[in-house]
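fyi for ur records
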Amino acid sequence: MYGIEPALALGSLITGIVWLVHRIAKGKAEGKLPLTVEYARSFFPIFLIVLLLRAFLVEPFRIPSGSMMPTLLVGDFILVNKFTYGIRMPVTKTKLIEVGEPERGDIVVFRFPQNPRLDYIKRVVGLPGDTVRYRDKHLFINGEQMPIELNGQYQAEGSGMRAMGSNIGSEQLGDVEHAVLINPMKPDFDPMHCNYLGHQEKTIPEGHYLMVGDNRDDSNDGRCWGLVPEENLVGKAFFVWLSWDWKRSGFVDFGRIGSIGD
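which gave:
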């Protein structure tokens, strides 16, 4: 098991045990503590508080790719709500309390089913029980085409320059309206690497979700590799707290700070 959360849990456990054992053996000793115990007493509350915040409230992530452009840009730093889809035990991820379920249009961080050490971020487009299809740059959900209104060419910058030539549009995804990028020069599916949805309709089983990137023609998503099981969900992205891109003029874009989707 890898990652910051297991490291924080291990740090909390070791420092807590060292401090507790010394307290039991020596009592509330006066004077200077041994250096190891002093470090344990200092770091234990820090490890524990950070662990609890990350496990139950919010966790920060950085956007490394352009697959969710134009909604999220390379270099955006976001916060993810960890309790929207249920409260889980740290490290084991066993669900303790049911809170809510993903809704169509949510932007969700999840563990990549083919390699759970990797975190992905995409938009929920298919819910359990839906029939879904992708054809001619459009999603079809339960037989209904999700409309896209194109609004001209996207003005790419910084690390997102590979999106140059794409059109920006607005997709109505159920009750949610959001921006998408469409590259009319690319096929719907890469026949070498995009094998799940292909040109066929699929029904989503219970406990699974179809996740798709807003940058429709430059996103490695569920259309290619399949569905995300409920236990792989990490949380719902809700806030950009910093946007820093070395390849962008001015590096920091303060105008991007705020709720995602506003």
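The radius of gyration is 22 Å. thats all i got for now
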